[in-house]
Design brief:
Length: 483
């Protein structure tokens, strides 16, 4: 890849050190004053465990970034863009409206450019971390092992996000070539670029990196904004749920991530309390916000979009057919009609009070309940029907005191598990889009939706086109069919 117009991909250590001066924290335990980074070298950055951790903090602070527009910010923006692509949320003419309309995939659009640049930027940070740590003469072997594991987590995680966003369903064609793999650092002087690799190689790299991270990351961490073994296990469970090669591994990873006791893992006090507190035991990984130096204010995560009772964007509505899937005693039934416009504007009938928006609203990334449902899904595929039912009921009974254990089996049981994922995670990371893509399912909308587009199974609308800059500047894309 040539350096022209590669806005975010190639970041020098100096820029990273500036980034590192941004406080990430989770429990007030962070960086002091910003420092003069003139002349900072890799040797200094990786000369101590404290400095190396500061580098990691800079990567994580990127996840709450504010790049140019509200719908093209940090990791939260990617996740909410997926959330509005389903049939449960109806997005007003506001931020994310083009994602809602499935029309934000062209090679020069901001969704495409941001998603590519954001993930490759963080892959380059990861490679810089791995390279710097391995070449450090100051870090101990144990310190090197841990920081290399963190670098491999970030590389595997962001390569997975790229594979989800820029390629079709993995199991439809494992040989298709869409995205490059980078395992060494690049800089502003880098010319050219790597060729797009077969998706089998891409997922091989993802799995190798995340398996290594699971092996070497510690259980302990500073707080829930940081990564540890359980976070790596959860992300790897997501990966294997896409490849569908090893359902036993999905179950083992998910069970380790949620702690093994499903009934205890799904307990949460966030429902009905604003869904904004990362200290809830059920949240596994989240972005911390404190309302001042650690917040992205009105930027695009779910809370300012979905909360209609607080001054914010008030832009997201709920499909009435989705709302009807919840019993009246389900704590997740947060749907109310506050505008009284159902007759004239049916799509504005229901809003959700799931989120109470403040500048200090924490942002969920992974929750234990997702891992419990992955375990249930894995048990279904392994033929352990009753265990799948029990795991599903552990969540259902925690959310609804009147829930009864399902008697479904076969495809009906899998459908119920996937529906439960929609009901548990609406507004978060787009479970319907994720599940429809990996299972070759359509996304069907009723006529109530503001845009009632149907997305057929395995449609090209499930992935973004490769950015125009990449095709222009990377000669390996010569003749590429950018569908």
């Amino acid at each position: 890849m040539k350096n022209k117009n590669n806005r975010l991909r190639f970041i020098t250590p100096l820029v990273v050190m500036v980034l590192m001066s941004v406080c990430l924290s989770c429990e007030k335990d962070f960086i002091e004053e910003p420092i003069d980074t003139t002349g900072v070298t890799d040797e200094l950055i990786f000369s101590s465990s404290e400095n190396a951790q500061t580098f990691v903090n800079g990567i994580l602070s990127n996840y709450k970034g504010q790049y140019g527009t509200v719908d093209a910010g940090g990791l939260y923006a990617m996740y909410f863009a997926r959330a509005v692509k389903g049939n449960d949320i109806i997005q007003d003419v506001n931020w994310y409206r083009f994602d809602y309309g499935h029309e934000n995939r062209e090679p020069n659009f901001r969704r495409t450019n941001f998603t590519w640049d954001f993930n490759y930027e963080n892959i380059n940070f990861a490679n810089t971390l791995i390279f710097g740590v391995n070449n450090s003469s100051s870090l101990s072997s144990n310190e090197k092992r841990e920081f290399v594991a963190k670098g491999k987590f970030f590389r595997g995680f962001h390569l997975f996000e790229l594979a989800l966003e820029f390629a079709p369903n993995y199991n439809n064609d494992r040989n298709i070539e869409r995205i490059p793999i980078y395992t060494t650092p690049t800089s502003l002087e880098t010319v050219g670029g790597n060729p797009p690799a077969p998706m089998s190689e891409v997922y091989g790299q993802i799995i190798d990196d995340l398996e290594d991270a699971v092996e070497d990351l510690p259980d302990a961490r500073i707080g829930k904004s940081f990564i540890n073994k359980a976070v790596a296990q959860a992300v790897l469970a997501r990966v294997y749920s896409v490849t569908q090669d090893n359902w036993q591994r999905v179950s083992d990873l998910a069970r380790s991530a949620y702690g093994g006791n499903a009934t205890q893992a799904v307990q949460s006090s966030n429902w009905g309390a604003g869904f904004n507190n990362m200290q809830d035991q059920e949240w596994l990984w989240a972005l911390f916000q404190n309302g001042s130096d650690e917040t992205n204010f009105y930027w695009g995560h779910a809370a300012p979009m979905m909360d209609h009772l607080t001054l914010s964007y008030n832009a997201s509505y709920i499909d009435p057919e989705f709302a009807a899937q919840f019993s009246s005693t389900d704590v997740r039934n947060t749907f109310i009609d506050i505008y009284g416009v159902s007759a004239t504007t049916p799509w504005r009938e229901f809003v959700s009070t799931k989120y109470a928006f403040t500048f200090s609203s924490d942002i969920p990334l992974i929750r234990k309940s997702e891992m419990v449902l992955f375990d249930a899904e894995a048990q279904y595929h392994l033929g352990n029907v009753q265990e799948a039912r029990n795991l599903l009921f552990a969540l259902q009974s925690a959310r609804d005191p009147n829930a009864t254990i399902t008697t479904n089996s076969g495809q009906a049981l899998l459908n119920e598990i996937l529906l439960e994922r929609k009901k548990e995670f609406y507004g978060e990371f787009g479970p319907q889009w994720f599940d429809a893509k990996r299972y070759n399912l359509p996304i069907l909308r009723n006529d109530i939706h503001r845009i009632s587009i149907d997305v057929p199974a395995d449609s090209n609308l499930f992935f973004l086109k490769i950015p125009e800059d990449e095709i222009d500047l990377n000669s390996n894309y010569s003749g590429f069919n950018n569908i």
